[in-house]
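[09:14] KT: can someone run the structure on this one? pasting the chain below
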Amino acid sequence: MRTLRPGSVGDDVQVWQAFLLKKGLYQGKLDGQYGPRTLEATQLFQRQNALKDDGLVGDGTYGVALQQGLELAHEDPPLPGGDVSLGDAWSAPAAPPDASLVIVRDPRVITNHVPGQLPCPNNPAPPVGYTYWKGGVSPAVQAFASKVEGHAADFPMGSFVQTTIDGVVVAARVEWHDFQGMTGKTGCFRGTSLFRLRT
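[09:31] RB: done, structure tokens below
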């Protein structure tokens, strides 16, 4: 277990926030970002339990929290060939202010899987500051997503592509999907998820 502190980001922070929320100490979002509200709630928990109220969630604070019902997140081992795990937080570079494309690789997406082979790999959460797109999409956004999904040579597995369409930052990530929307087939396919900035 790593020590959590202001500025920490990840699933373990979200688990800690959920614990503090259940204890009635935290009132913010379960966003996995150790900010001022998480610090304040952590220090209150520490004071209530006669711990040093430094805001660091280390062995002592974890120990007391475990006795009070904290359930730690599942193990998240590093992906093959690296030190990045599927559950790690990842920040994309700044999005462009115009229709140009910013293309990077999300290091958390498994790239060495064989299409069609089951089980289909899990995909990571959206990058920090992004959320999955919900609701309808404009024809321009649909065309962007189709371009990213359909051009494997330009957008290999794990590509995270950002642009601005009609004044809105839009991103698409090439990843593994167990359902192919165009055909209705199930299996393990190259797919694209759309994202927008979290508001």
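[09:33] KT: thanks! The CA atoms of residues 102 and 162 lie 5 Å apart.
[09:34] RB: yep, looked fine to me
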